[in-house]
Automatic annotation (TrEMBL):
Pfam families: V-ATPase_G. Residues 48-124 form a coiled coil. The lineage of its organism: Eukaryota, Fungi, Dikarya, Ascomycota, Pezizomycotina. GO terms for cellular component: vacuolar proton-transporting V-type ATPase, V1 domain. Keywords: Coiled coil, Hydrogen ion transport, Ion transport, Transport. One of its GO terms (molecular function) is proton-transporting ATPase activity, rotational mechanism. InterPro entries: V-ATPase_G. V-ATPase is a heteromultimeric enzyme made up of two complexes: the ATP-hydrolytic V1 complex and the proton translocation V0 complex. Subunit of the V1 complex of vacuolar(H+)-ATPase (V-ATPase), a multisubunit enzyme composed of a peripheral complex (V1) that hydrolyzes ATP and a membrane integral complex (V0) that translocates protons. V-ATPase is responsible for acidifying and maintaining the pH of intracellular compartments and in some cell types, is targeted to the plasma membrane, where it is responsible for acidifying the extracellular environment. It comes from the Eukaryota. Belongs to the V-ATPase G subunit family. This is V-type proton ATPase subunit G.
């Protein structure tokens, strides 16, 4: 920044002769301008540092938010997966029960059919028992 002060501004109340303070005026004006410029630079630097701190806070908050959001998303996905798994397990159990029931019914029906055929064979054996025993004895004894 360039100092825009007028030399007379710095020495308005000085009653010395212009010849006496002319050199002092230039030095004082230069010193005052340097001090003013230094103060402005210092204030500018402080403003930049404050802005940098504020930006760091914003970035930190954004990172924390992102981390929190990732964790929440992971938890939500876990819950959805668990729910999906439970639904599929329930579907499988229903399917298994339905088809197992069908197999049990088929096994029971086959068992009933087998029992019916065994009963027929026994009945036929009871009817022909005497004849079968006689035929066996003839065959063995040769009578």
């Amino acid at each position: 920044m360039v100092c825009t002060h007028q030399p007379s501004h710095h020495f308005q109340g000085d009653r010395r002769s212009p010849k006496l303070w002319r050199g002092t005026l230039k030095e004082t004006t230069a010193d005052t301008c340097d001090e003013l410029q230094s103060a402005q630079n210092s204030a500018g630097i402080q403003t930049l540092l404050d802005a940098e701190r504020e930006a760091s806070k914003i970035v930190q908050k954004a990172r924390e938010y992102r981390t929190k959001r990732v964790k929440e998303s992971r938890d939500e996905a876990k819950e959805e997966i668990d729910e999906y798994r439970k639904n599929k397990e329930a579907e499988f159990k229903a399917f298994e029960a339905q088809h197992t029931q069908g197999n049990k019914e088929a096994e029971e029906e086959a068992g009933r059919d087998a029992e019916a055929q065994i009963a027929k064979i026994r009945e036929a054996g009871q009817k022909s028992r005497d004849k079968i025993v006689e035929d066996l004895l003839r065959g063995v004894l040769g009578v």
